[in-house]
Amino acid sequence: MTTMKRILKLALTGTLALSLAACGAANKPATTGGTEGEGAKETGSKPQNITITFQNIYPDPTDPKQGMLKKIVKQYEEMHPNVKIELDSLNTDQQKLKLKTQAASKEVPDITIVNPAAQMQPFVEAGLLAPLNDMVEKNGLKDTFQEGILDWYTFDGNLYALSDGNNIGLVYYNKELFEQGGVEVPTTFEEMIEVVKALKAKGIQPMAIGEKDTWTGSFLFMNMLLRTNGPGFLQQVVDGSKTFEDPAFIEAVDAFQNLVQAGAFQEGATSFDYNAGENLFKTGKAAMYYMGSWATGGIEASSVDGKVGVFKFPTINGKGNPDEFMLAPGSAFAISANSKHLEETKDFLNYFMLNFPKEAFEVRGAVGIAQKVDGDFKAAGYSDMAMEVLSMFKDVKGGDIAFDNTMNSGTAQVHLTSIQNLFVQKKDPAEVAKEHQDGYESNIKK
Q1: From the centroid of its chain, how far is CA 41?
Q2: What kind of architecture, by CATH, is found in domain 168-327+398-443?
Q3: How high is the pLDDT of residue 2?
Q4: Which phi-psi region, left, alpha or beta, contains residue 38 (left: φ > 0; alpha: ψ -120 to 50)?
Q5: What is the pLDDT of residue 93?
Q6: What pLDDT sits at residue 39?
Q7: Low-confidence ranges of the chain (pLDDT < 70)
Q8: Is 158 left (phi over 0), alpha (psi -120 to 50) or beta?
């Protein structure tokens, strides 16, 4: 089975359904990352001081996961005084660009962030990532993950990364701003356009987005394509049964442009990165925000906590099933195959992941993580909004994953640029479709 077919098969069989099953190992703080004496090499009788570089995508101090990250790092450093964990915190697009540069010179950080399936495959094929099979068997780490999630990061029987998330795409909305605008939750895309216009007329910013990080617009667009076509469009293109000039793709482009032209997004959306765009919503300056369910924890920790609800992306022209979601196996932690401190780095990452579910749960950041969570979310103080999100996971009837997690990097870049341009200028949907098809044909592997 080709990588592409394996990717789409996993998406369509619903491997991203959330599990809240108990997992003792996931919620007991690990007292050690590995066996006695690991994490420090001996030089005579004195442990060698080492530094492990930990590249991550938690740069936002308002995101509870950043505090969680620093807490686990501090705990490990206190247990291993000879080990220093150096954090390199970047936003998603910055990290992707930096990693490509580092990979070209074979200077990948000890721990870095990769994205699933097609995005990480080139790093695997270049031999830049260390297999983690042995590590995950230690202390039961593998059993802390939801069933099937690690398949997205496995090639030829070797596991190369550990996911931080297992999410779905949905729309967050500010109930107070909806009330001020005199609008209700839309059940169709056509109603959504009317909601945008009504909010705009009342001086309320309808939606927020951080389109400087181009994946954000793509993630929204792909949900529209999921409605106009149903699941599996990219596989149909690969199989040759459809092209990007198919009516379903053109219809999705048209719908996307209608949303932009209705004034849904803030002025200069392409100059707002992911964090800046999300902060518009978290500070009550926008009424809606389409994003993966990983945003739940940050929204709960913001000034709009208690004011936010969620809804499924609606049908478009009567097409699509709202219970089919954009599925988002998360970014994942990988270890450099060329790490100078490979065993110590594995020891730390093992410790980090064993403690990840417990610490994420405690900071109300456990909605949409890839590991099993043993705990009562409601009793722990999770909001009604978070409980709504958790309930939505039970409704998942399949869906698709992101464009750049499925297509080769050249085709993906054409797509990301093409969709970003729609925020700046209106184009003939057929022309946008042709851009995609030309990009695909020029980048397809012969």
Answers
A1: 36
A2: 3-Layer(aba) Sandwich (3.40)
A3: 46
A4: beta
A5: 86
A6: 42
A7: 1-46, 445-446
A8: beta
CA distances from 191 to 40, 203, 317, 326, 351 (A): 60, 19, 10, 21, 48
CB hemisphere CA count around 24 (13 angstroms): 2
Domain spans of the chain?
21-165+330-374, 168-327+398-443
Say how far apart CA 289 and CA 209 lie, in whole Å. Answer: 7
Please give the Cα distance from 11 to 305 (Å, whole number): 32
Q: Tell me, what's the pLDDT at 389? A: 97
Residue 188: CB atoms within 10 A of its CB come to: 15
> According to the CATH classification, is domain 21-165+330-374 in 3.40.50.300?
no
Q: How many CB atoms lie within 10 A of CB 21?
A: 11
Q: What are the tokens at 42?
A: 């001996």
* 185-235 pLDDT tens trace: 999 999 999 999 999 999 999 999 999 999 999 999 999 999 999 999 999
Q: How many angstroms from the chain centroid is the CA of residue 155?
A: 20
C-alpha span between 92 and 385 (Å, rounded): 25
Q: Do domains 21-165+330-374 and 168-327+398-443 have the same CATH topology?
A: yes
Query: Rounded to an integer, what distance in angstroms lies between the CA atom of residue 257 and that of residue 427?
Result: 8
Which tokens hold the place of 384?
């009604």
Identity (one letter) of the amino acid at 248?
A: A
The enclosing H or E element of 199 equals helix 189-201
**Over the stretch 285-296, which tens digit does the pLDDT of each residue have?**
999 999 999 999
Query: In the beta sheet, which residues pair with residue 292?
Result: 169
Distance CA 206, CA 200 (A): 6
SS3 content of the chain, % helix, strand, coil (to 5): 45, 15, 40
Closest CA to 124 of 170, 156, 146, 147: 156
Tokens 């110590």 belong to residue = 344
Predicted TM-score of the model (pTM): 0.85
DSSP string spanning 350-417? HHHHHHHHHHHHHTT--TT-SB---S-TTTTT--HHHHHHHHHHTT---EE--GGGTS-HHHHHHHHH
Q: What is the identity of the amino acid at 335?
A: I
Instruction: Please report the pLDDT score of residue 18 as a whole number.
Output: 42
41 contact partners, CB below 8 Å, separation of at least 6? 47, 48, 50, 341, 344
* Residue-level pLDDT at 5: 47
